[in-house]
Amino acid sequence: MSTKEKIKEDLLVDTLEQNQNEIVLYNDDVNTFDYVIDTLIYACDHTPEQAEQCSILVHYKGKCTVKTGSYEDLKPRCSMLLEAGLSAEII
């Protein structure tokens, strides 16, 4: 095994071992697209395009992963979504 292959293998193992959580946003019949988009931009640091795409996915699929990361990073972001009246959870 070459040195280059060994480094790639070690990197892959390190990446797989990191525990990643997700914020899942759920559809509701209360909030408007614009409100959801603005909230995702504020709470999850989305670009306007990214927030719009997530809001469309939530509308048509019923849910969408809007942010991935460590639990410590996601907890305050999920709290902001919940305080804004959206339905979300960390999984």
UniProtKB/TrEMBL annotation:
Keywords: Hydrolase, Protease. It comes from Gelidibacter gilvus. It comes from the Bacteria. One of its GO terms (molecular function) is peptidase activity. This is ATP-dependent Clp protease adaptor ClpS. The keyword Thylakoid does not apply. Pfam families: ClpS. One of its GO terms (biological process) is proteolysis. InterPro entries: ClpS_core, Ribosomal_bL12_C/ClpS-like. Residues 18-83 form the Adaptor protein ClpS core domain. The keyword Protease applies.
